[in-house]
Recover the amino acids of this structure.
């Protein structure tokens, strides 16, 4: 009887142990993905960094943490990674998203540069891109064409 009871207790503990990850902390998962992303960034693997950050955003959305400061940090890191990969427009959009969630967000000293700081300041000012001209209308009026 003692062996049977031990086996039963071991089985219950095994099942309970396998259920525990269901109650994972989404903020912790988001933070871990963001850390993983910035490690990829540090190794100049910007595509891997963006992939991890997009996974972090998916976790955030699923956990309904869209407006949480942890998500703002993910957007900020995504902007930093996009800029490093040469995607200036993507960086601007990511910075705007970060600022909409957390208007006081700051770039970590490890990743701060004058260009990134300027872009973040512009996002905080409402997305002013500082002198970009509006797109001209280059359409052609075909009503005057004969033939």
């Amino acid at each position: 009887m003692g062996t049977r009871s031990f086996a039963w207790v071991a089985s219950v503990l095994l099942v309970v142990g396998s259920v525990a990850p269901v109650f994972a902390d989404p903020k912790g998962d988001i933070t871990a993905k963001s850390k993983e992303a910035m490690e990829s960034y540090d190794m100049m693997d910007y595509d891997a960094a963006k992939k991890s950050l997009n996974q972090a955003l998916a976790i955030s959305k699923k956990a309904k943490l869209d407006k949480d400061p942890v998500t703002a940090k993910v957007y900020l890191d995504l902007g930093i990674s996009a800029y490093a990969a040469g995607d200036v427009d993507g960086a601007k959009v990511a910075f705007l998203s970060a600022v909409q969630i957390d208007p006081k967000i700051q770039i970590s000293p490890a990743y701060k540069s004058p260009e990134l700081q300027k872009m973040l300041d512009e996002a905080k000012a409402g997305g002013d891109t500082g002198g970009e001209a509006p797109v001209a209308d280059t359409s052609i009026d075909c009503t005057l064409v004969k033939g």
The two ends are 100 Å apart (CA to CA). The CA atoms of residues 5 and 90 lie 60 Å apart. Confidence is low (pLDDT under 50) at residues 16-20, 129-139. The longest helix spans residues 2-19.
